[in-house]
Design brief:
The structure holds 3 protein chains of 3 kinds. Helix content of chain A is about 75%, strand content about 0%. By secondary structure, chain A is mainly α. In chain A, strands 1-2 form a two-stranded antiparallel sheet. The structure holds adenosine-5'-triphosphate and magnesium ion.
Chain lengths: ~325, ~260, ~290
């Protein structure tokens, strides 16, 4: 009872902070905040994929599938943008489902390379086929999100703050769904498939179906994040979703750690703040990839369990202290 | 007499040039504790691997209540009621003891992602949990439910492996050396549990090197050597079978 | 038509030569250390920049520049082995991720040192052997092909004829057994990493005068090398060479008769098909990784 009250208070507090946050930032920082919010969805969905133990190098391309699909649907067919975004997510999930047939014949390292190859093929198709993908220049003038008014707040999507609120809502709901899935028996089965696929299969789990399920779900959320991105920046091209972006996602995820739900989000937030606020404003623009690379290497070497391990360490230390305090009080 | 629940029919498994199982045939009666013994490398684990669907046999067939199950995937075999444990403790080491057992209930309470998202699978989850706790309780692991499986002592890990299998309520369980790493006392307790289990109607196919346990438990024993059937009979017959004695002593002499 | 075919064939042979050098280095590193070096394309890029610096900027002889590039990149490889591949020996995914981090560092360092624009290296020689009116083989390309053949032959001799080579092959086959026989894992890892990196470096140095050099040029090279080593069988040096040649022919011909992007797609599809049908590759037998 007590703990649920505290966690409710914590969530409300966090919500209030997130709502107030953009008003404390400069315009360019507000724009970064929108990207950060979208990227949180990308890393969280990436972790969903890694839950069954497979690491993909095609996740950002799948995100791009959502972006291209939503952009084309709204631009070519005049689909209402919020609907096209959802359809973008569905398209990404469908493409992932199709890819799962060849890819899940592979495991581990082969899956990694296979997903990389599949992603590159999709990117090359975007590049090669000017119609409808726009070739190397991509798609420009993507329809923006239509403005609307919900009474207490008028959304004007040329303002980053408005788009931030939209993204926050979409990402918040998505995270909540992913969280529910992970905490459910489905999530437990994902973990089982990851840690010991033989025992899982001997317990009657269709391992391949569960791997596919995680891949398709994760890809759907990645596609949604891509659609959010496309209608914000207005221009996408094959290079928006290249290996370098994938490296960023990988870095956030690994630096954060994949053992917990919040690990990759933590990695994304901390590194983005470091990247955008500290490095960019301190004038180290050119050195950013260098520092990113260093952080990646150092964290694999010295923090293999990620930032979350520090948080968990701190928490258990605090708990131990509380316990100790409790014990001494009890003896008194 | 009732038909055999499991029938191994002229089963052959080759790995490259090595024939690990060579036209092996035997039948397991419903409700029996059936022992499968043989010297190291005889092909016992390989037999389990074929029966459980981990390998597709090179030749022959495995039939469950008359239906051919060889060639099915491992989860399809499990869904027909045949569940196995592994020779080398194979657990979800990073999950808790209770979560391990919960995975065992997968077939009885299949997860549904939409129900989970909508939060309408509470009854299902409760029932799965009750089943898992029951399985842990049966093996005396209730007190350890929140421990990480990987951190349990070896004997408890073996017991947990069986609890995961039993949480599935199988018709037939294949146990691969379940008593290794247990002291005589624990082994004795496990033997009682095996009998209790059999009395609930579960058929047990047991691979074990502990002859005392095998002789004490089994209704019938199949002995194999170099992938072939060597002898079959009740414990008395096997104990005094010259070929069995030869196979074991021959191995021993060889070592000495 | 015959002329076009002959000309394309010669171009393919040239592409095969540097692809084989890169791929063989990658295979060697994987074989001995069990890790995929994602930064291998950037080692190729470093080799090319060695030419930009030593040959184009400092005006030293081309062969000196090649030797400097090869040695320098080999030493970078030693540094990689010591800095992260060795501590991450039991963690192949970690090693791969660390090499991705290193790739970004190398790209950033080169961009900072040389700028991100394309560098054009002055030609070493403009001589052309005229075989017929339409088939002309530039001498430099011929030299690159010959150099690759010589290098690969010496590598082969090194592996088959020397004690180090024997140790390398032993630890590629079974690291634990090799360790039991007193072969130092660190030692063989160092040798493999030096040779593997140096081969990527020399490939970059040899091709630099013929392509535009830029900090991101490693990407297409590593994609090609991946295709080659996986189709060839990830532990097989012979497979890498054979597939490098075959792939270069397919790619060059498809590029000539259709276009480059289609050629890339064909290559990647080939990779996927092999991964699906025979994940251990056409010439691979080991089930490592
Ligand atoms: N996947 C495989 N590939 C090649 N050979 C195998 C494979 N699995 C088992 N074998 C071989 O088959 C033979 C039988 O092995 P198996 O593990 O079935 O013996 P076992 O009777 O269980 O022995 P133990 O009592 O030591 O557990 C052995 O020679 C083993 O090396
Ligand atoms: Mg065995």
């Amino acid at each position: 009872m007590h703990s649920s009250v505290t966690s409710l208070a914590a969530i409300l507090g966090l919500g209030a902070v997130l709502l107030a946050l953009p008003h404390a930032l400069s315009f360019s920082q507000q724009e970064i905040l929108v990207f950060l919010t979208i990227n949180v969805l990308v890393v969280a969905s990436y972790r969903l994929l890694t839950l069954t133990g497979e690491w993909s190098l095609g996740h950002v391309v799948i995100m791009g599938v959502g972006a291209y699909a939503s952009a084309l649907l709204s631009k070519r067919l005049g689909v209402y943008v919020p609907v096209s975004m959802l359809l973008g997510a569905v398209t990404a999930a469908m493409v992932a489902l199709a890819l799962s047939f060849p890819l899940f014949r592979m495991k581990g390292f082969y899956f990694l390379i296979g997903s990389f190859a599949a992603g590159e093929i999709i990117r090359l198709l975007w590049k090669r086929f000017r119609d409808p993908f726009g070739g190397p220049k991509g798609i420009k003038k993507i329809d923006p999100m239509p403005d609307f008014d919900i009474g207490i707040y008028a959304f004007d999507f040329f303002e980053p703050v408005s788009y931030y609120y939209l993204a926050l809502a979409v990402v918040g709901v998505s995270l909540w769904i992913m969280w529910r899935i992970e905490r459910s028996p489905v999530g437990l089965t994902f973990h089982a498939v990851h840690w010991q696929d033989r025992l899982a299969e001997a317990s009657g789990v269709n391992v391949r179906a569960y791997r596919t399920l995680a891949f398709v779900l994760a890809s759907g959320f990645a596609g949604l994040s891509g659609a959010l991105l496309a209608h914000y920046i207005g221009t996408i091209n094959p290079n928006s979703f290249d290996v370098e972006q994938m490296v960023f996602v990988l870095t956030w995820t690994i630096v954060g750690g994949t053992a917990t739900f919040y690990g990759p989000i933590l990695g994304c937030v901390v590194l983005t703040i470091l990247n955008e606020i500290v490095l960019r404003e301190a004038g180290f623009e050119q050195m950013r990839p260098l520092i990113y690379g260093l952080i990646l290497i150092l964290s694999v070497l010295f923090m293999p369990k990620g930032l979350e391990s520090l948080v968990r360490g701190a928490l258990s230390w605090q708990n131990a202290r509380k316990k100790k305090v409790g014990e001494t009080q009890a003896t008194e | 007499m009732a038909p055999p629940v499991l029938e191994i029919d002229s089963l052959t498994m080759r790995f490259g040039g090595l024939t690990a199982i060579d036209r092996l045939s035997f039948k397991v009666e419903r409700g029996a504790i059936h022992g499968l013994i043989g010297p190291n490398g005889a092909g016992k684990t390989t037999t389990f691997n074929v029966v459980s669907g981990f390998y597709e046999p090179t030749g022959g067939a495995v039939r469950l209540r008359g239906e051919t199950i060889s060639g099915l995937r491992m989860y399809e075999v499990a869904r027909r009621g045949v569940v196995r444990t592994f020779q080398h403790s194979t657990l979800f080491a990073e999950l808790s003891v209770l979560e391990n057992a919960l995975v065992g209930t997968h077939m009885s309470f299949p997860p549904n992602i939409f129900a989970a998202m909508a939060g309408v699978d509470k009854a299902n989850r409760r029932a799965a949990r009750a089943r898992a706790e029951e399985a842990l309780d049966f093996f005396g692991l209730s007190g350890l439910a929140d421990e990480l499986a990987g951190e349990l002592p070896h004997g408890h890990q073996r017991a947990l492996g069986m609890a995961v299998a039993l949480a599935a309520r199988p018709d037939v369980v294949l146990l691969d050396e379940p008593f290794t790493g247990m002291n005589p006392e624990e082994t004795g307790r496990m033997m009682e549990l095996m009998v209790k289990l059999r009395n609930t109607g579960v058929t047990i196919l047991l691979v074990e090197h502990d002859m005392h346990a095998i002789m004490g438990l089994c209704d019938r024993i199949t002995c194999m050597s170099f992938g072939r059937l060597l002898a079959e009979g009740n414990p008395q017959e096997i104990r005094h079978h010259p070929d069995v004695i030869e196979a074991y002593l021959g191995g021993a002499r060889h070592v000495a | 038509m015959v002329e076009l075919l002959a000309q394309t064939g010669l171009n393919a042979l040239y592409a095969a030569s540097y692809t084989a050098l890169v791929a063989v280095g990658l295979v060697l590193i994987f074989g001995v250390m069990g890790v995929i070096n994602f930064a291998h394309g950037e080692l190729f890029m470093l080799g090319a920049y060695a030419i930009v610096a030593v040959y184009a900027d400092w005006n030293l002889p081309y062969l000196v520049a090649v030797a400097v590039g090869m040695t320098f990149v080999g030493i970078v490889g030693l540094g990689m082995e010591r800095a992260f591949f060795r501590p991450l020996r039991d963690n192949p995914l970690g090693g791969l991720v660390a090499s991705i981090g290193f790739l970004m560092i190398l790209q950033a360092l080169v961009s900072m040192g040389f700028g991100v624009r394309m560098e054009h290296v002055p030609p070493v020689t403009q001589d052309v052997i005229v075989i017929s009116e339409k088939v002309r083989l530039p001498v430099f390309r011929l030299a690159v092909i010959l150099a690759a053949v010589v290098l690969l032959a010496s590598l082969w001799a090194f592996l088959k004829r020397t004690r180090f080579g024997w140790a390398l092959r032993a630890s590629a086959q079974d690291p634990e057994a090799a360790a039991l026989q007193g072969i130092s894992i660190n030692q063989t890892a160092r040798i493999a990493m030096f040779i593997g990196a140096a081969l990527a470096g020399v490939a970059g140095a040899l091709t630099a005068p013929l392509i535009s050099v830029n900090p991101h040029m490693g990407h297409s090279v590593i994609v090609t090398a991946f295709i080659v080593i996986i189709v060839g069988g990830i532990g097989s040096l012979e497979g890498a060479v054979i597939v490098a040649v075959a792939y270069a022919f397919v790619h060059t011909f498809v590029t000539t008769f259709f276009d480059g992007v289609i050629a890339d797609i064909v290559g990647l599809l080939l990779l996927l098909v092999v991964l699906i049908v025979k994940p251990t590759g056409l010439f691979g037998s080991t089930d490592r990784a």
